[in-house]
Prior knowledge:
The chain is mainly α. It is 76% helix and 0% strand. It is built from six helices and no strands. The relative contact order is 0.18. Keywords: Antiviral defense, Cell membrane, Membrane, Nucleotide-binding, Transmembrane, Transmembrane helix.
Amino acid sequence: MAKNEQEEAYEKLMSAHLARTIDFVKFGETKNGALLAFCSVWIVACINILSNSRALPPLAGALLPLAILLFLAAALTAITAFLPQITTADAVPGAAEAQRNLLFFGDIARMDAARFEALARERYTPASGHFTTGAYLHDIATQIVANSAIAMRKYVLFRRAARIAMTAIFLVAFPYLVDACLRMGR
């Protein structure tokens, strides 16, 4: 395999890996969005149960307001996952602000079009006989790391929010389960 073909194969591999990490970010967004909607519905449902004139099982009057607070905490945690990482330095701890990544929207947005074009030509125009440049491959690698960090943050926040929501579900269900067990024992 010629050097140029090796570079092309490596660039394709890195681009495919970047596409996968972007998919992980999208999936993390979707999971947090679904959990936010789930918590919102449960908040409204709990408020409706509390405002209903029907008698509540023992403990429900005390546990449902606590469940509402937990669903609210879970929803706010899920919302936190939507806060954007707008520079490479935001997404990758220790990334130098001075070294802008010409593939990252936040870094590109800080330049005018002429500056971006000049930097892109300088960094990404391959030498004769080469498929790509080391700078381009470096920027792809940095993007993979940045998007991986963003995805990881979204999944960590999702897991935290899901655990809070599961606790809230238990608090909603507990008084009704106890009430059902007591009725069965009669």
